[in-house]
Amino acid sequence: MIGNTDDLMIYFDNEPYNQGVKKYFNNDDIKFCKNVPYANHTPIVAEVFLCSRFILKMENQIKWDLDFNWKIIRDYFCIIDNSMMDIFWYKYEWQYEYRHIRTYADTISRGLDFSEWLSLYKNHQINWKKISSEHEKYDENQNLLNFKN
User: Fold this and answer.
1) Residue 23's closest CA among 42, 37, 7?
2) % of the chain beyond a pLDDT of 70
3) Among 1, 48, 84, 105, whose Cα sits 20 to 30 Å from the Cα of 141?
């Protein structure tokens, strides 16, 4: 299912972060550390907040595991990576633009490229779980716990 303009309005709701956290993430699954909400060792900040709030509005639930994450990416998003469009984004640390270009196929997960998303979307068998069956997990200082470079 590819979204529409209404989906974008839901995703980019102008509700402030603090209000959204209280409204959507105040339950037993959420732990707070230094005023940052965590769900299953995932800090709910930036894009994680936007995506999880969107999914809660669309699905009325959220599961903090890889299988649910892949389902959501397949059903609600389309991944288009920089290399596919052959663009260069001059931003902070631009010299490292392609430093983390692989996902669960490598020993550490950092990004999802278009070809992987397309395989996911078409329900092809992807062997991401050969490396790990869990998502990235962070401690209260947002240090990665379960993967080593």
Assistant:
1) 37
2) 72
3) 105
